[in-house]
């Protein structure tokens, strides 16, 4: 066989491989264009909470990148999210929708240890929304390229597409009610070309919040923020996954990743008793910025930072997170402050500024409103932290002040507490509930494992809850009878 014949054979083999690959892609779920059933409520595409899957974005599980999102598969009849296609190297696999924790328009967060979908059970009629698919008008003209798929996290319904096209702003929201057929490379809508500029502009949540801050500052309604932003330094930060507060705030304070700083949860094991207790500074394996500044001779102040109890000895003052009425209500304040002479003052502030009456609530809403209790907790925690930090700052004038305000979602936390309290089984547990952007954190004690499992099940049924971190412990038999 001469070289020319060998080259022809090799090229012919590649053609066969390409044809077979094309057939496989066309036969796999979502490989052909399918017609979509009408959407029952078009308004739901643009209102309420939504998660956003960035096509081409990273997919992570517990902070480890598993690949990039290439497609979203959903039911053409019920519009239910079924899976996401994730590629890692040359491998592409379908991750079931049940494995999705959250999607913020940048990173898709997956459960650690999720069960892979059985390819033999895949829905061959699923509609596919692939990265860079062309979105076309009713006349067949291209409107732009598909960038993001939006879905409602509680119901799992795909609600809208984000398409990047001409004009400013370039990204616009296309309700799924306007999509008539979806295939891996082309999506057909009933939009006319002229309607493109009338579609809602799209921005992810962090961009919306920044726009609101900029506008209020420009209008003179947030003068202090405007001065801080103009005279200081600011940046948009990206987070680690999972979104667990002690992990994230310790990473911010140390500049280290969780595997290095070793604060890994809401609780830690007390080496003396073997019992689970709230996470503390004892778990941290590396110095924080205030330790470094203090060692360099700078005066520092720390107030309310996550995972900092007991208070650390520094060149300045230190008030641990146990001073927060939201995070650690009814816990003793011993060890809450350095120098220890500050403890009585901290206790007085918690007792005085942590007490909210109807007159305080009335500035924002009717004290009889069902949200008054949640607002009361937020006001109490904010006042306590602000008073302690301001008084100590004015007295000591530190070179560095590290201050944490507990920005909790009290409405969702209240709903979680009430649901757990109403349930016949979980009502016996002594728990605390905090919530942040759909993530609910539950700590405390349950009498047995059955109650602990029920806590998880009840919390997941609360509307608006996306992720549950159940850190409830079970006391030893001796502790139960003490």
3D architecture notes:
This protein is of the alpha+beta class and 482 residues long. The chain folds into 4 domains: 34-202, SH3 type barrels; 203-239, no CATH class; 278-405, no CATH class; 411-481, Histidine-containing Protein, Chain: A, CATH 3.30.1340.30. It is built from 12 helices and 24 strands. The strands form 5 sheets. Strands 1, 2, 10, 11, 12, 13, 14 and 15 form an 8-stranded mixed sheet that branches. The protein is globular, with a radius of gyration of 27 Å. The termini are far apart. Residues 16-30 and 42-47 have low confidence and may be disordered.
In short:
This protein is α+β, with helices and mostly antiparallel strands and 482 residues long. It contains 12 helices and 24 strands.
Feature tags:
seven-stranded mixed sheet; single chain; 12 helices; SH3 type barrels; alpha+beta; 482 residues; eight-stranded mixed sheet; 24 strands
> Span between N and C termini?
89 Å
Silhouette: globular
Query: How many strands, what sense, and barrel or not for the largest sheet?
Result: 8 strands, mixed
CATH level-3 fold name of the largest domain: SH3 type barrels
Calculate Rg over CA atoms: 27 Å
- Helix segment tally: 12
Oligomer: single chain
Give the full name of the CATH homologous superfamily of the largest domain.
PRC-barrel domain
Query: How much β-strand is present in the residues?
Result: 25-35%
Please name the CATH architecture of the largest domain.
Roll
CATH class of the largest domain: Mainly Beta
Mean pLDDT: 82
Question: Based on helices, strands and strand pairing, what is the structural class?
Answer: alpha+beta
**Share of residues in helices:** 25-40%
**Number of structurally distinct domains:** 4
Number of beta strands? 24
Unreliable runs, pLDDT <50, ≥5 residues? 16-30, 42-47
């Amino acid at each position: 066989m001469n070289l020319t014949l060998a080259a022809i054979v090799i090229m012919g083999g590649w053609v066969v491989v390409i044809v077979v690959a094309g057939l496989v892609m066309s036969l796999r779920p979502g490989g052909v264009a399918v017609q979509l059933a009408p959407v029952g409520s078009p308004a739901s595409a643009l209102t309420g909470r939504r998660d956003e899957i960035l096509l081409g974005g990273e997919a992570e599980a517990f902070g480890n990148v598993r690949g990039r999102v290439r497609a979203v598969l959903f039911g053409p009849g019920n519009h239910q999210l079924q899976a996401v296609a994730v590629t890692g190297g040359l491998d592409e696999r379908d991750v079931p929708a049940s494995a999705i924790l959250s999607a913020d328009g940048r990173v898709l967060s997956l459960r650690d240890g999720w069960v892979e979908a059985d390819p033999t059970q895949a829905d061959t009629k699923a509609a596919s929304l692939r990265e860079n698919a062309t979105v076309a008008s009713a006349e067949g003209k291209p409107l732009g390229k598909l960038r993001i798929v939006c879905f409602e996290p509680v119901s799992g319904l795909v609600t809208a597409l984000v398409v990047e096209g001409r004009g400013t702003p370039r990204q616009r929201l296309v309700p799924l009610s306007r999509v008539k057929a979806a295939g891996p490379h082309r999506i057909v809508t009933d939009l006319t070309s002229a309607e493109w500029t009338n579609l809602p502009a799209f921005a992810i949540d962090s961009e919306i919040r920044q726009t609101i801050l900029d506008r209020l500052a420009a209008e003179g309604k947030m003068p202090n923020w405007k001065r801080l932003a103009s005279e200081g330094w600011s940046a948009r930060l990206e987070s680690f996954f999972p979104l667990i507060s002690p992990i994230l705030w310790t990473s911010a304070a140390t500049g280290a990743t969780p595997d290095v700083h070793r604060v890994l949860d809401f609780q830690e094991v007390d080496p003396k008793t073997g019992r689970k207790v709230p996470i503390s500074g004892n778990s941290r394996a590396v110095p924080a910025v205030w330790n470094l500044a203090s060692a360099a001779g700078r005066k520092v102040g720390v107030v309310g930072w996550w995972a900092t109890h007991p208070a650390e000895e520094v060149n300045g003052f230190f008030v641990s997170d146990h001073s927060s009425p939201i995070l650690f209500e009814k816990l003793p304040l011993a060890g809450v402050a350095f120098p220890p002479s500050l403890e009585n003052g901290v206790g007085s502030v918690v007792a005085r500024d942590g007490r909210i009456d109807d007159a305080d609530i009335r500035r924002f809403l009717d004290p009889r409103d069902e949200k008054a209790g949640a607002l009361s907790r937020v006001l109490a925690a904010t006042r306590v932290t602000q008073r302690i930090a301001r008084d100590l700052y004015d007295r000591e004038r530190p070179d560095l002040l590290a201050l944490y305000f507990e920005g909790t979602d009290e409405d969702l936390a209240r709903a979680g507490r009430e649901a757990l309290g109403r349930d016949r089984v979980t009502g016996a547990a002594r728990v605390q509930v905090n919530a942040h952007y759909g993530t609910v954190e539950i700590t405390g004690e349950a009498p047995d494992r059955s109650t602990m499992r029920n806590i998880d099940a009840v919390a997941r049924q609360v509307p608006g809850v996306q992720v549950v971190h159940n850190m409830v412990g079970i006391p030893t038999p001796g502790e139960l009878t003490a």
